[in-house]
User: Which sequence fits this backbone?
């Protein structure tokens, strides 16, 4: 019974939103006249990931080996009716949680780490490298590499490296080498440290270090967020949710998720776009990183050093250094091009939440659901609580994407 349910829920294909966007997505731009963006990315990305990055195909077949790994790590993740939360809020509608914290690594990140590591291993790669902010992506990369028989190296933003030592421990258990960024292992890291030995780091800097390391050592770089291929892999979240609400017999009215680079949010809401045209979609960001309200929709670098191509997105600038808020996964300076375009067109709304409001929301949510959610997910939860309080008598079905658990983030409550 359980296996047949899982087979029914886990999709057979990933969904690529690009063919269904309201206008063509602006292509990446390379700064060098001597190379194209694709030629450069071909040096660091697994070939199949690069192909998926630029495809116009609406669906991509999920390899059966990857579907099996999805089963192993906990897919499908549960859709939970938060009935006690409804009662505590005196809400007339229904609230559901798509709980990505139920995966073995505790977040949605494993959804793209597994296929990327799988493709890298199929190409004979012996080591993959990446960056991580809060540590969720690094953890997913470490496990995905181990499951596919290759080694991994993770450049972790220094402020999170210091704040969250247990994340590093888990990555080490999976066999990964973890380095605080900025580091002395790359030319760009040394340049940053020459100016400031206690620099807190940023995702933009960590990406630059990971890419430089991959280029210098002929390794393959795994993408954690922002790029189309990543959001395509993450579409398992939304596709599972659609099938689960069909079984539940409900129609969605409101979808809410948090946004760092946009991978969990895009993976959650994009599969709903064509089928549920009237559903309200709200992207929750950190007020300390106000990319949609204070950023510009422009071509900007993915990383701080400007090694990777520029993409058109909402951005605060690739040299933006955020405050050390505990939601490390939301500190990124930009947002995925596809998500940015849909925000610009008004199809997706955005809201901002501060860390104090997130902490209050996490406490309230935990007492009503038993789930200690990640600080990143706490932004989506806080936004959902705001929405409910403003619409108490509306019988709307709200689905919150709880992108991960916060079991390694408990010291946020000591700040």
Assistant:
């Amino acid at each position: 019974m359980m296996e047949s349910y899982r087979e029914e829920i886990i999709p057979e294909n990933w969904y690529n939103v690009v063919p269904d966007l309201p206008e063509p997505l602006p292509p990446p731009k390379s700064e060098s006249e001597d190379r194209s963006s694709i030629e450069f990315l071909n040096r660091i990305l697994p070939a199949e990931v690069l192909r998926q990055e630029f495809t116009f195909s609406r669906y991509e077949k999920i390899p059966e080996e990857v579907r099996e790994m999805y089963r192993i790590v906990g897919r499908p993740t549960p859709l939970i009716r938060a009935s006690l939360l409804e009662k505590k809020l005196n809400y007339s509608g229904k609230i559901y949680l798509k709980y990505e914290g139920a995966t073995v690594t505790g977040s949605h990140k494993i959804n793209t780490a597994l296929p990327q590591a799988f493709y890298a291993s199929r190409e004979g790669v012996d080591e993959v490298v990446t960056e991580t902010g809060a540590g969720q992506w690094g953890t997913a990369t470490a496990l995905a590499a181990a499951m596919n028989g290759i080694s991994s190296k993770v450049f972790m933003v220094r402020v999170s490296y210091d704040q969250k030592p247990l994340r590093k421990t888990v990555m080490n258990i999976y066999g990964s080498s973890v380095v605080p960024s900025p580091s002395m292992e790359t030319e760009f890291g040394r340049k940053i440290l020459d100016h400031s030995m206690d620099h807190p780091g940023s995702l933009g800097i960590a990406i630059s270090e990971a890419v430089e390391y991959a280029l210098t050592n002929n390794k393959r770089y795994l993408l954690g967020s922002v790029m189309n291929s990543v959001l395509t892999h993450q579409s398992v979240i939304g596709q599972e949710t659609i099938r689960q609400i069909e079984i539940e017999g409900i129609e969605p009215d409101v979808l809410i998720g948090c946004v760092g680079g946009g991978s969990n949010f895009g993976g959650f809401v994009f599969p709903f776009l064509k089928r549920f045209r009237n559903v309200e979609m709200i992207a929750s960001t950190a007020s300390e990183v106000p990319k949609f309200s204070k950023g510009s929709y422009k071509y900007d670098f993915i990383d701080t050093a400007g090694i990777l191509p520029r993409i058109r997105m909402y951005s605060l600038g690739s040299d933006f250094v955020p405050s050390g808020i505990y939601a490390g996964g939301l500190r990124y300076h930009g947002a995925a091009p596809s998500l940015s375009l849909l925000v610009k067109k008004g199809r997706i709304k955005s809201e901002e939440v501060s860390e104090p409001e997130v902490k209050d929301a996490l406490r309230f949510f935990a007492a009503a659901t038993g789930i200690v959610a990640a600080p990143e997910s706490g932004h989506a939860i806080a936004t959902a609580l705001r929405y409910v309080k403003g619409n108490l008598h509306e019988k709307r079905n709200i689905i919150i994407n709880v992108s991960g658990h916060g079991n390694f983030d408990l010291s946020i409550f000591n700040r």
About this structure: Residues 375-390 form the longest helix (16 residues). The first strand starts at residue 13 and ends at 15.
